[in-house]
Amino acid sequence: MTAVPPSRPPAAAPRPTLLAPLGAAGLFAAAIAWVLTHDPTDAIPDPGGACLWTALTGTQGPTCGGTRMMWYLLHGDLVQAARHHLPALLAVPVVIYAWARWTAQAAGRHLPTPPAPRWLLITYAASWLVFAVARNLPWPPFTGLHLTDIQ
């Protein structure tokens, strides 16, 4: 005869914690501090070079325009922010809401999930890809998207 182990009550589901969203906010704050202390739009060499992506690939990628977009956004220049990385600029309010929703959920509250049709997500991803390619094309009108201050 085998002994049947006593039944235990089911383990309680782990409670969400604010640690993850607050950690993400801390990392984002550090990134903003880096951009504010190492102006990506000036000619002064930064510790990481003009752009890590350009240094690695020889093309202009998301970090080149993204840091410049953030610099201009933090200084209130939406036109230059859009010129440097329009897809990332359009994502800013979405990312802020997603973080707020994540934080609220971790605190045991609920924020509604706005509807995001599949076509919108696909269109956004495709526009990001088109922008990434177009900014590296060497003829007009695409040269207007090219960042000239990156070595």
From the structure above, extract its key features.
5 helices; 151 residues; mainly alpha
Describe the structure.
With 151 residues, the chain is mainly alpha-helical. It has one domain (19-145). The chain is built from five helices and no strands. The N and C termini lie far apart (78 Å). The mean pLDDT is 83.
Q: In this structure, how is the largest beta sheet organized?
A: none
Low-confidence stretches: none
Mean pLDDT: 83
Helix-and-strand structural type:
mainly alpha
How many alpha or pi helices? 5
Short description:
Helix content is 56%, strand content 0%. The chain has 151 residues and is mainly alpha-helical.
